[in-house]
Each structure stands twice: as structure tokens, then as C-alpha cells.
Amino acid sequence: MNHPERLGKYPITGVLGQGAMGVVYRALDPVIQRQVAIKTVHKALLRGDADTGSDYAERFRNEARSAGRLAHPGIVAVHEYGEDADAAYIVMEYVEGETLAQWLARTPLPGEDEVLALMDQLLAALACAHAQGVWHRDIKPANLMVTPDGRLKITDFGIARIANVALTHASALVGTPGSMAPEQYTGAPIDQRVDVFAAGVLLYRLLAGRPAFSGSAEAVMFQILHEQPAPPSTHAGRSPAWDAVVARALAKDPAQRHASAAAMREALAEVRELTVVLPRVPAPRTAVTAAASARLAPELLEHATCVLATQVGPIARVLVRQASGRAQSAEQLYRLLADDTAGGGIDRERLLARLRAR
What we know:
Elements: E1 6-7, E2 10-18, E3 23-29, E4 34-42, H1 43-46, H2 53-68, E5 78-83, E6 87-93, E7 98-99, H3 100-106, H4 112-131, E8 134-135, E9 144-146, E10 152-154, E11 161-162, H5 182-186, H6 193-208, H7 217-226, H8 243-249, H9 261-277, H10 287-295, H11 298-312, H12 316-324, H13 330-340, H14 348-356
Antiparallel strand pairs: 1-2, 2-3, 3-4, 4-6, 5-6, 7-9, 8-11, 9-10
């Protein structure tokens, strides 16, 4: 197809992806001199019949409205909505990285520290969206971006629901089979707990290396409405500390789930404390991490993790593991951790003092 040289004020510099609905371009903001991503949809789709075109048009504009009101480092920022003769488009933050679906294709069974880090970031971002009355309704690996340094960002608010705002076909069945909560299938009233359910589905996939619900669309719907998947601890030797959190997130009755993304995040913080003492299957060791283990005692690494967790949460274990691969001594480890967390509102010298107090 022929691609435009520019959309609005933005010169097009490349194609990031394309499909039947439209194209996602890489472009340059000529004023700020920053890269942006521009998601387009063909105008022909927006002029479709009342059952398809108007619905898709409303969802596309809703993506701009939903994400545009959110400001959080874990949510892809929306800068502008526009239309020209051929397409409507959303100008978004350009994120260097890959989708979580692509990441999982290479890392089908991530370590528990990585699971905690990813889920902590996801739930923090969802808590921000929910506080603004926005429910995503389609949380899944394809709608989550992972940057090279491990940061997770939510994208694609195309079917997001804004509380107290009536949308075209708001009661229609929307979402992705396998990640949709029971109330999305039955047409019952929904709230932010549909995202909690989807987060539970994702957590199960990260822990078990397989979907919580699988099969045909009809089989998946039956399982979501009537069956409970086997606890994740029955797969891959995971700690049983995860089971209760997953079971609650996947409860059929919304009233039995975590009341919010923030509540589920707190439950996972407790899992982090439990998995320190419960036996776990060791993660595959690279030459670097094996050498680091020989230099740095396990109790020293655990001390550093516990101190750092009070400042940054579950991601502390990931930061300690990464820093330990570069450190030759305890003091060097402490300084690396202080440097890695600099700029996040953490007092560097105070953190160093607490690390050295072991």
C-alpha cells in the first residue's frame, strides 16, 4: 500500500506494523524533536454501517479519550488525536521494545522475581487508570509492551470503558476470549474487577507457562464460567504461596476477587516475603550469575534485596540479581544499587547507610 509522507505536522519515518484496520507508523514530532508512534485507522472503516463502522470509530476515538486522560509511566502516553482525508490517527509515545507476547515466546517460564516485577508494574498502572474511572477490559500480553530495561507499559485502550460514560454498543461482548471475566460473557454490570480477572489470567500464564483456560472459544467460555484451573504450584515447581492470590483474582464472583488492582498488588507483595523462605525451583544460572554467587554470599544478596524492597517493592530482587552480576564485592554491589535507583526520589546516601549496616 502507499504510505503517506506525513500525518498532520508529523513526518513519517517508518512503519511499525500494519493490518486490515490500519497502520502504525513511526514519526517525528518536528517541534519537540522526539520520536512518536502514530496509530491510524482507515476512514472507510469509520464510515461503515451502524453495526460495524460507527462502533469501531467510537472505540478508536475512545482510545484517545481513555489513554489521553491518564498520566503514568506504565501507560503509553497519548499526545494527540487527528483526522485527514484518508485516515483518523492517534499520536502516541514511542516505546522501544517488544510486546509481552513476543517476550514470552522467548522466555516461556520466567523466574519468580521477573513475574513479581512485571505484575507489580502492571497493577500499579491499572490502579492509576482505575482511579481515573478507566477500565481497560482487554489486558493480555499483546497489549503490554516491555522495554529493553524491563519496564512494562499498557497500550491499546481501544475498548476501554470510562465509568459513567455511555459508549456505542457499550454492552456488546468485547474483549479477548481467555482473558475476559465471567461478567463480560454474561452481560452483567462490570467495573474495574474485570481488569483484576485479566491480571489473574496473565499471572497464571507467567507462573504455569500455559494458559489458565484453553480450547475453542466455546470451551474457554465454559471453563471461565464454570471451572477453576489447577493451582499454578502444580506446574513448574512454583511456590504454593502464589495459589491463593491467583485463585482470588480468578474468582467467578467479582465480590470474591481482589477489590482493586492496588489490593492485588499488596497481596503479591506478601508473596514476595513468603517466597524468601519457601523452597523454590532454582532459575537457570548463567556464567555471570554463577560467578557472582561464588563472590557474594546468598545472605548478603538477601539482605540487599530486603533493604531495597522497602524503597522499590518487588522489583528489588531483579535489581539485586542484575547488579550482582557486575559486582566484585559487597561495597561495589551497594554502590551499584544506589546508582541504579538514583533519580527515583530515593536518598542515595541513606540507602547506602542501610545497606552497609548489615
